[in-house]
Design goal:
With 306 residues, the chain is of the alpha+beta class. Helix content is 20%, strand content 35%.
């Protein structure tokens, strides 16, 4: 113990890579991140898309160099298993809120399946009152808790697919593939409205986030029970968030140019953003090629640099 009874802080170390966490219910995404960060004794970390405390499932966590490429996962499509309870609406749109209205559930599985087709494709969705979006510098949920109505403009999202996994009225389990920014709470309410009913989100589990799937994720309990060597083996490389992009290998001269902020050369048939690798296959970062020229977008730290 330090003077005054303060506990000595564990030393941090450079950790680079991605860890796929199966987030438990009842824990915020940031709280889960901090526990994993402590377990790995990592210096720098960030997550790639918030899951509400109610939600469980895939939460990709980026460390060190990988944090520079987290946006690729934030922007990527997601998939969920959403449990919708029809017949009851809540203040928050999910199971954490108080019931404000009850309704009949006057439809069959076949009628539910038919209604779901209306929501596939590009749609406009109005964000919920209880959201972490900002209005005049404050979160939506702060206004909602104070009982203040604010304008909530509809946003363009895209639903790639919806299918019924299970139906036992009044509960439906739906598999939903969607774009970033989709609120499952609102989708549940909108589907119910189309069927002349009401609903709330009873449970939510994320199964896919960009290139990552839940099958490869580790639970927080299992992670914290491992030794440090076993935890490190779970880390995916820092280029994992960019695995959906084309690979471009460059020579030593071009690698030096990119590291110095200069324009490098690229093959004339390469265009757009690529994950770039130098000699010995070392991952350099995200680059953009155009008309035979290569420019850095985000680069990893040079070897030996902090």
């Amino acid at each position: 113990m330090h003077p005054g009874g303060a506990r000595a802080r564990s030393p941090r170390r450079r950790v680079d890579g991605v860890l796929l966490l199966d987030k438990p219910a009842g824990l915020s995404s940031n709280a889960a991140l901090q526990r994993v960060k402590r377990a790995l004794a990592a210096e720098k970390a960030g997550h790639t898309g918030t899951l509400d405390p109610l939600a469980t499932g895939l939460l990709p966590l980026c460390f060190g160099d990988a944090t520079k490429f987290a946006q690729a996962v934030l922007d990527a499509p997601k998939e969920y298993l959403a449990t919708v309870r029809f017949g009851a609406a809540t203040t928050t749109g999910d199971a954490e809120g108080e019931t404000v209205r009850t309704c009949d559930v006057p439809f069959s599985r076949a009628e539910l399946a038919a209604a779901l087709t209306r929501f596939v494709g590009p749609v406009l969705q109005t964000p919920p009152a209880f959201a972490a979006l900002k209005f005049r510098g404050r979160n939506y949920y702060e206004y909602a808790r104070a009982g203040i109505d604010i304008p909530r403009a509809p946003r363009a999202i895209e639903i790639g697919a919806i299918e019924i996994v299970d139906w036992s009225a009044p509960l439906a389990v739906l598999r939903v593939a969607c774009s970033k920014g989709t609120y499952m709470r609102v989708l549940a309410e909108d589907i119910a409205g189309a069927l002349g009913s009401c609903a709330h989100l009873a449970a939510l589990r994320r199964t896919v986030s960009g290139p990552f799937g839940l099958a490869a994720a580790v639970t927080l309990e299992a992670l914290e029970a491992m030794d440090s060597a076993a935890r490190d083996l779970l880390l995916l490389p820092s280029d994992a968030p960019l695995s959906g992009l084309a690979r471009l290998d460059v020579d030593a001269s071009t690698a030096v140019d990119l590291a110095a902020g200069r324009v490098g050369r690229s093959p004339p048939d390469v265009s757009g953003r690529c994950r770039c690798y130098g000699p010995q296959g070392r991952f350099l970062g995200l680059v953009e090629a155009s008309s035979g020229e290569l420019r850095s977008v985000r680069l990893t730290r040079a070897e030996g640099n902090p």
